[in-house]
Each structure stands twice: as structure tokens, then as C-alpha cells.
Specification:
Radius of gyration: 20 Å
Largest sheet: none
Strand content: under 5%
Distance between the termini: 68 Å
Oligomer: single chain
Length: about 200
């Protein structure tokens, strides 16, 4: 029998999870799709949770982190405050779009969020680092107030907007007022760290 790669297992797992949903999919279903025994899968991933974590980690990297990184790369000429708002809106759009149009994978991501703190912490930390880079640019260009701890500020901004991108709030995202509510939150956030008028660093 040809040796399976982790890439092949993850591809088959993602396809099977989309077909049956994360609750109904078993390791045996994935093994059948690959025409191997479930023991072969367990040699790579010791449990169904470990396999789901691996699929989710790859999905988050490809579908969320990579586009966000590209958004930052495309924003070099923008003012930092514009980049920050656009980044948050991109994060929100990605999460809300996949909740609607890739429901099975988003459901699995929501499950893993509740079960695998380490993986989700790693995902969040990548977003925090993106925000830190934007805030650093804002401070350097004197459009954002000096922050003693850029990571702390970035984490505060992330959690202040969590209602719009955390899977636990997905049921709220179809509200007709959700965009208006984000704008109100953004106004509060921006008042906290943007310079206005003749204000200077002090």
C-alpha cells in the first residue's frame, strides 16, 4: 500500500467533514474515503480531535490568516488608522462569509474553539501580531497615541470587536443592524487611540 502523506489525510478529512458535518464524520469515514484502515489514520493522528485540530489549523491558516496577511501587504501606502479598520472589517467579513458559505468547516472551527485552547490561542496571537504591526506604524507616523504595550492594546481591540468575528456570536451576524453596531464600536475604539486635531504625543 502506498504511504499516505498528512496532506492527503487532511484533504480527505476536509472533504468528508464537508460532506457529513463534523458531528457525524468518523475517522472510519475518512479512512474509507482514502481506501485505508482507520488504524492508518491513527498512526498520523492519535484521535479524532487531533485530526479535527489539524484540519482546522490548516483551514484557519489558508482561509483567514493568509488573506489577512495579504491585506496588510497591500496597505503599505494607507494611513495606519485606515489599515486598522480595513483589517478588522476583513477579519469580520471572512468569518461571517465562511459561517454562511462553508458551514460545515465553520462549525468544526467553532467546536475546536471550545475544545482546543492552545490551537485557538495560536490563531489569535497571529492576528494580534498583525494588529501590533499596524499600531506600530500608527505611532511611528504620529497618527496613533503612544502605547506602552502594543500587544496589550492590540488584544484589547481584538476582544472589543469579538462579537463580530468570534464563532460564539455567529447567530447574531444576520442582524440588520450588525454593521451599524460595528461602526459604533469602532468609534469608541478610535477615540481611544487616534490623534485628533492638533493633539501630539505626550
Amino acid at each position: 500500500m502506498e504511504k499516505l502523506s498528512k496532506q492527503e489525510i487532511l484533504d480527505a478529512a476536509e472533504e468528508t467533514l464537508r460532506r457529513f458535518g463534523p458531528k457525524k464524520t468518523s475517522v472510519t469515514d475518512i479512512a474509507k474515503a482514502l481506501k485505508v484502515s482507520h488504524g492508518t489514520i491513527y498512526r498520523h493522528y492519535p484521535s479524532k480531535l487531533a485530526l479535527k485540530e489539524a484540519v482546522t489549523e490548516r483551514w484557519l491558516e489558508e482561509r483567514i490568516i493568509a488573506p489577512l496577511q495579504q491585506r496588510l501587504a497591500d496597505s503599505e501606502a494607507e494611513a495606519a488608522e485606515d489599515t486598522l479598520k480595513a483589517y478588522l472589517l476583513e477579519l469580520i467579513s471572512l468569518k461571517q462569509t465562511y459561517a454562511e458559505h462553508d458551514a460545515e468547516m465553520f462549525e468544526m472551527y467553532a467546536e475546536v474553539t471550545a475544545e482546543s485552547a492552545e490551537l485557538i490561542d495560536e490563531h489569535v496571537n497571529k492576528i494580534i501580531e498583525h494588529l501590533v504591526s499596524v499600531i506600530h506604524k500608527g505611532i511611528e507616523t504620529n497618527t496613533m497615541k503612544h502605547a506602552e504595550d502594543k500587544h496589550e492594546l492590540s488584544r484589547a481591540i481584538f476582544y472589543a470587536t469579538a462579537r463580530f468575528h468570534h464563532p460564539a456570536h455567529a447567530y447574531e451576524w444576520k442582524s440588520e443592524t450588525i454593521q451599524e453596531e460595528f461602526e459604533k464600536v469602532w468609534l469608541l475604539i478610535s477615540k481611544g487611540f487616534l490623534h485628533t486635531g492638533g493633539e501630539t504625543n505626550g
